[in-house]
TrEMBL record:
Species in which this protein is naturally found: Flavobacterium sediminis
Lineage: Bacteria, Pseudomonadati, Bacteroidota, Flavobacteriia, Flavobacteriales
GO molecular function terms listed in the Swiss-Prot or TrEMBL record: transferase activity
Name of a matching Pfam family: Glycos_transf_2
Transmembrane segments: none
Name of the protein in its database record: Glycosyl transferase family 2
Keyword field: Transferase
């Protein structure tokens, strides 16, 4: 059976976190998907994990890898986009555990000439480490009482964990956040992403996903807010690759994209 949706997961030398994420996709209610791992140069432990997980999970895993040359996520994501065999692409990260209805909700809300903008719920490091295979397969890790019992602080943002159906639709409508392409939880039609030439490979850490979304909007694709309908738990991690230089460079590229209404990047999938 031809797959209906491609899930791209970015990863880099984090096999412990990646395993939890792959377990999460093994709990999905909607099963007709392929999973593309966009690997920014991980070492052997990640390769070993992938071979192990291929024997455990129901979905096909396609491993797209290149040599480690610093933070080059935009490059590997473009290669992963090319590797997708379906018409619709969902992107997330190798530190985001999806709720069992994650892929299903993206399928439900997808729409021509739109992209979907989801959110995440960030966990502290102690909870990130604590979550086990059993917690994921039993869906305990998405139980608000279980999370609070293990140290998650009370917050309005906790609604993301358990909001479903009409309640999540109301919260999506009421949220003041402008929908954007978020690397941890967004989806769109492959033809639209290819039409703007994918990610700008000049961009390293900081906003390369948002810039792609801004070019999609310039191209005429409308963003659709579903941050309370598609839920993933964001595992904590250090961010040693975030430098002021890369962030400032990316801000300038984004400013140019917005002010000049750019749709196409010459530094994307096709090099011009």
């Amino acid at each position: 059976m031809k797959k209906e949706i491609s899930v791209i997961i970015s990863t880099y030398n984090s096999p412990e976190w990646l395993q939890k994420v792959l377990w999460g996709y093994n709990t999905q209610n909607y099963r007709n998907f392929e999973l593309i791992l966009a690997d920014d140069g991980s070492k052997q432990p990640t390769f070993d994990l992938i071979e192990q997980m291929k024997k455990e999970v129901f979905y096909p895993i396609i491993h797209v890898w290149h040599e480690d040359n610093g933070f080059q996520k935009s490059q590997i994501l473009n290669k992963a986009i090319e590797a997708c065999t379906t018409d619709y692409i969902l992107m997330s990260d190798g530190d985001c555990i999806p709720r069992p209805d994650f892929v299903e909700q993206h399928i439900k809300y997808r729409e021509e000439n739109h992209f979907l903008s989801g959110g995440y719920h960030k966990l502290p490091m102690n909870l990130s480490k604590m979550i086990t295979k059993g917690d994921i397969y039993s869906n305990r890790c998405f139980d608000l009482f279980w999370l609070k019992k293990h140290g998650m602080k009370t917050s309005f943002k906790n609604l993301k964990v358990y909001a479903k159906g009409w309640f999540s639709d109301i919260l999506n409508f009421l949220t003041p956040t402008t929908p954007s392409w978020n690397g941890h939880n967004s989806s769109g039609w492959k033809r639209d992403i290819v039409a703007i030439n994918g990610f700008d490979e000049r961009m390293q850490y900081g906003g390369q996903d948002r810039e792609l979304g801004e070019r999609l909007v310039n191209y005429g694709i409308k963003p659709k807010q579903i941050r309370y309908s598609t839920v993933c738990l964001h595992l904590d991690h250090p961010r040693g690759y975030a430098t002021k230089e890369s962030i400032d460079k990316n801000k300038n590229i984004r400013k140019e994209t917005r002010t000049e209404k750019k749709k196409w990047t010459p530094y994307g999938i096709v090099k011009s």
